[in-house]
Design goal:
single chain, 146 residues, alpha+beta, Immunoglobulin-like, four-stranded antiparallel beta sheet, three-stranded antiparallel beta sheet, 2 helices, 7 strands, elongated
Length: 146
């Protein structure tokens, strides 16, 4: 028997067990939504925070962006698969609503933010209120025995 035969229905069986035991104990174990991956970087010239979020398959018109102090809030959703007749062997693409709060390391001017969406990547540039100055790391000697 091949490995494929052993695990072909494992995900389906896991979902069915989650539904069965969730119903028995009066709670749902079904996941709703997802959390998109996010990168946060800071650029010096001009000083700004750059937030990049991986949002493939989401209509950019349905993405909401809010800025509250040092928090960037992203929300929206990825629609469920269109076909109700397909039989899936594997389901890994997260669907449903999302809400992501990104803590920023500096004060930003939210009213001057610029966003772009290309190839499933949302890029938000947020001008900083103050420049971030790089702090030098004190040098240490490896051969000191003090």
């Amino acid at each position: 028997m091949s490995d494929r035969d052993l695990f072909a229905n494992f995900e389906r069986m896991r979902r069915e067990m989650d539904q069965l035991f969730g119903d028995v104990f009066g709670m749902s174990r079904r996941r709703t939504g997802f959390m998109p991956a996010v990168d946060v970087a800071y650029a010096p010239d001009p000083p700004r925070a750059i937030v990049t979020a991986e949002l493939a398959g989401i209509d950019p018109a349905e993405i909401e962006i809010e800025i509250e102090g040092r928090k960037l809030l992203l929300s929206g959703g990825r629609r469920a698969a269109e076909s109700r007749t397909d039989v899936y062997q594997q389901v890994e693409i997260a669907r449903g609503p999302f809400r992501r709060v990104v803590e920023l390391g500096a004060d930003v001017r939210g009213q001057d933010a610029k966003a772009s969406y290309e190839d499933g990547m949302l890029r938000i540039e947020l001008p900083l209120v103050h420049e971030i100055s790089a702090r030098p790391v004190p040098a240490t000697r490896l051969d000191d025995d003090t």
